[in-house]
């Protein structure tokens, strides 16, 4: 549901206040300012933001490693005020495209079992269960590892 009011772009250092505000939505596992700064400039990271009507309303952090063709979505956040606009989907699709450009053949991620909205999104995008992760999260919440093969860029 991309429109002229929404764009996906790389995170910048001047996005830090908005990124910290998004991180504050998490009760646990939130990234610090220092960690966010590191990922913005890390060569093995693609830190993307969804800008809607000129405001950062979501972000996604994807990580890659030199010794594997598996990319990993580390974090996806969409502001409650922007839910239903398709920003999560746009962020994931943009990350998949970035992973393909980096020569990755698959994308993996972890998601909480009780996060039905995210699980539905990933299922619609072709992610499949790879492994259950009992007690995976800091608060002992259960997770799932999902994976999707990526076709090479055309």
From TrEMBL:
Signal peptide: none annotated. Keywords: Acyltransferase, Transferase. One of its GO terms (molecular function) is acyltransferase activity, transferring groups other than amino-acyl groups. CDD domains: NAT_SF. Pfam families: Acetyltransf_1 (PF00583). The keyword Acyltransferase applies. It comes from the Bacteria. Residues 6-151 form the N-acetyltransferase domain. SUPFAM superfamilies: Acyl-CoA N-acyltransferases (Nat). PANTHER family: AMINOALKYLPHOSPHONATE N-ACETYLTRANSFERASE-RELATED (PTHR43877:SF2), AMINOALKYLPHOSPHONATE N-ACETYLTRANSFERASE-RELATED-RELATED (PTHR43877). This is N-acetyltransferase domain-containing protein.
